[in-house]
Amino acid sequence: WYLRTSPELHMKQLLAAGYERLFQLAPCFRQGERGRQHLPEFTMLEWYRAHADYRSILADTQDLVPTLAETLNHSARCQFRGASVDLTPPWNWMSVDEAFARFAPEHTADSALQTGQFDTIMVECIEPNLGFDRPVVLADYPAERGALARRKADNPNRAERWELYIAGLELANTYSELTNATEQRQRFQAAADLRCRQARDVYPMDEDFMAALEAGMPPAGGIALGVDRLLMVLTGTDLIDDVVPFAPP
After folding, report:
1. 134: left (phi over 0), alpha (psi -120 to 50) or beta
2. Pairing of strands 77-80, 83-86
3. How far is 205 from 138, CA to CA, in rounded Å?
4. Which long-range contacts (CB under 8 A, 24 or more apart) does 196-201 make?
5. Alpha-carbon distance 249 to 241, whole Å?
6. Looking at beta carbons, which pairs linking 115-121 to residues 24 or more positions away fall under 8 Å?
7. Which residues sit opposite 83 in a β-bridge?
8. DSSP bridge partners of 50
9. Angstrom distances, CA of residue 211 to CA of 24, 26, 182
10. What is the reported pTM?
11. Torsion-angle region of residue 161: left (phi > 0), alpha (psi -120 to 50) or beta?
12. Quick check: bond before 90 cis, omega within 30?
């Protein structure tokens, strides 16, 4: 048995079984993560829609977040990390390639992947610059950084994935879902091989999920939205402990 990092795979099994609109508000777990914006146990809101894609889910999210802000603060503008951020849509759409060109011009996304610097550059050079006027939707990641996302039809090296940033804080991760069982198995195996080379724990493949994909899952879009982080933004605090009553030490 394992503590789950996300309810994603189980919800996709329900998509494959014929349920077309799903959401879950659930506890999730990450080993060894603790900081001002990280907890080992946190709350995730995930929803999935059949016959949708990552742009459809963006429309949902652009409806949800300003509505919550207006309900809580009577304004679609939030005050967070010294910025006054306008949450009304449309939000700013930026590709990962554009972000590297703007904020890390000595690198490209592909070269950063090859040298193992992609995550470091994202955290140190790109993320701190995103979403201080309006939320930024950082989209179209290298396919290697979208293990469960469908590749773009016009550029198979990029995945239909976006992440939401407000004042430098990442809040959500969204895909056009990969439904090809053969490709998904290959990607899971590649991820397991990488973890093995890095001397990290390798977990068994979820064969129930793979069986659901093989039986057939419709085109779909889905999102994982961090509820605790969203509350941080809406209440103007930069410390996750302030919005979680019983945060662990």
Report:
1. beta
2. antiparallel
3. 29
4. none
5. 9
6. 118/142, 118/145
7. 80
8. 220
9. 22, 24, 11
10. 0.94
11. beta
12. yes
pLDDT at 228: 96
DSSP sequence for the chain: ----S-SHHHHHHHHHTT--EEEEEEEEE-TT--SSS--SEEEEEEEEEET--HHHHHHHHHHHHHHHHHHHHSSSEEEETTEEEE-PSSPEEEEHHHHHHHH-TT--HHHHHHHT-HHHHIIIIIGGGSSSSS-EEEEEEEGGG-TTBPEETTEEEEEEEEEEEETTEEEEEEEEBP--HHHHHHHHHHHHHHHHHTT---PPP-HHHHHHHHH----EEEEEEEHHHHHHHHHT-S-GGGT-TT---
Nearest to 139 by CA among 107, 109, 180: 109
Q: CA–CA separation, 50 vs 33, rounded Å?
A: 32
Q: How far apart are CA 187 and CA 39, in angstroms?
A: 28
- Contact partners, residue 32, CB within 8 Å, separation at least 6: 40
Residue 96 has pLDDT above 90, yes or no: yes
Mean pLDDT computed over every residue of the chain:
94
Residue 249 has pLDDT above 80, yes or no: no
Separation of alpha carbons 190 and 187, rounded Å: 5
CA-nearest of 42, 221, 61 to 137 is 61
Chain center to CA of 100: 18
